[in-house]
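Q: Here's a chain of 191 amino acids. Please give me its 3D structure as tokens.
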Amino acid sequence: DLHADGILAETFIPDTPGHYVIRVQTGAEVELAPLEVVDPMAPALSLLEGPFYALHPLSPEDLIRAEDVSPVSLEYVREPDWTRTGDQAFQVKAIDAFGNETLADFTLSLNQDTTPPTLFGAVDRIGYVNEPIVYLRETYAEGDVDGRVEVSVSSQVILSQKGKYSVTYTATDLSGNTTSKTCTFTLVKPT
């Protein structure tokens, strides 16, 4: 047992929760003593800044900043209605590595994405009769909220006949915003 008149024999005072062994000096003797540093504080939570968009669900980790001395897990107790625009109430539960728990209510505003995707690489091309065409080799679309968006192609190209053909590229994001571009594919006979 340590005496009440013991003093720390070192300057190390842990500030991270856990189990430690420290040296305590009592008179002329130095003894080892167990020390448990606990975390009695629940995580502090705050809503990150948006914008946030309807039809684009996010995980709690993408919406909430959790501050604590240990790792924190987040989960929805009540999730926002991602199908509607406007103010959405939701509740999050946070638990740190020591079992301290926070329940917090938040409101976020979901906006409507109204910007159509942008097509890249949809340009007029020249190819050879009877050679395959790779329509999407260098063509892609990106939405300001969705990131990469699938591109579809419609064409009336007849590979066996030289001529000029219309090829239309179309991209539609999750919110239904659509963009299209029609290009000319010219097929020539190889020389």
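Q: Can you summarize the key feature?
A: The longest helix spans residues 60-63.
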